[in-house]
Amino acid sequence: MNTQLVESIVQVIHTLSPEEQALVRQKLSKVSPSALDSSPSSLEQRRTFLQKSPTERSQILSQQADTMLEHYQHSTEWRELMAGDIMDD
Q1: Which residues of 20-48 are buried (b: 16+ CB within 10 A; e: fewer)?
Q2: Tens-digit pLDDT string for the chain (89 aa)
Q3: pTM of the model
């Protein structure tokens, strides 16, 4: 874990207004711990996920879908990529 990065992020959050801090808390509460890990899922992580009840798996997938929906609704990067021609000349 990159503890220096985490500490830097915490310091930045402390400089935000109370409203901005509340927004950060709200956003982070919607992110599952596995979504914060940018590395591909290990075999052990996948097995652990599959051992959960169908209800728990559904909740996790629903949270991930909500996170991705929010990302794609607010991000313009992917739209810019799709705006170009499909074939190069």
Answers
A1: eeeeeeeeeeeeeeeeeeeeeeeeeeeee
A2: 577 877 888 888 888 888 888 888 888 877 766 566 556 668 888 888 899 999 999 999 998 898 888 877 777 776 676 666 665 55
A3: 0.43
* Helices marked H in the chain: 3-15, 18-29, 33-36, 43-51, 54-74, 77-82
Helix or strand or coil: residue 72?
helix
The helix/strand/coil state of 58 is: helix
Token pair 């990529």 is found at 81
How far apart are alpha carbons 73 and 88 in whole angstroms? 28
DSSP secondary structure letter of residue 38: -
Which amino acid belongs to residue 44?
A: E
